[in-house]
Write a structure and sequence with these properties.
Elements: H1 2-21, H2 34-46, H3 48-65, H4 72-85, H5 97-120, H6 133-154, H7 157-160, H8 163-173
Helix pairs in contact: 1-2, 1-3, 2-3, 2-4, 2-6, 3-4, 4-5, 5-6
Length: 174
């Protein structure tokens, strides 16, 4: 229960920070996707189920507060949460290069999934132009901000604690 509350606290904090503050700063060329990076972190450390749930709700709230079609970001982030959850407890996110790679690749996966969805909904879904510098800048920004965010997330025990260890602790006390 504590993990869900912590996730919703982060989702709403990042959601309002991205939509209310960062989008209104004129000199930013691209905006870092904190919600995407949070979904990837939660998926890797807590599994696909929590990653999918986190991705769905963060995407749904982002769809409600943005001009994107309702359900687009929810679908994209749910898929990314599932795929990142496949690496549950197999990646060490304490260093620098793994979080950079995860942030960079998650942004590329999001762009590719949006490109695929644009084939089915060509007049509705905004796509990235892979020849434009903005997608690559967003990948770089998300990659460079991810080690800082992953370090911040690791300080919250409910997000980074191994679920098997917490089960062992509760079974010992019973």
């Amino acid at each position: 229960m504590k993990t869900f509350l912590t996730c919703f606290l982060f989702i709403f904090s990042f959601l309002f920070f991205e939509t209310a503050i960062l989008t209104n700063i004129v000199f930013f060329v691209v905006i870092p996707d904190f919600l995407l990076l949070f979904t990837v972190y939660v998926s890797i450390h807590r599994g696909s189920l929590l990653g999918e749930t986190n991705g769905f709700f963060s995407g749904l709230f982002l769809d409600i507060l943005s001009a994107s079609p309702l359900g687009l970001n929810a679908l994209l982030r749910t898929i990314i949460g599932f795929v990142a959850g496949l690496f549950f407890l197999t990646l060490n996110t304490n260093g620098f290069f793994v979080p950079v790679f995860l942030g960079f690749s998650a942004t590329l996966v999001k762009a590719f999934l949006q490109q695929i969805l644009s084939f089915f909904f060509p007049n509705v879904v905004y796509t990235y132009d892979f020849l434009n510098i903005n997608i690559w800048l967003e990948c770089i920004v998300n990659g460079l901000i991810s080690p800082v965010l992953f370090f911040l997330f690791s300080k919250f025990r409910s997000l980074s604690e191994d679920p098997a260890e917490s089960i062992k602790k509760t079974s010992r006390t019973i």
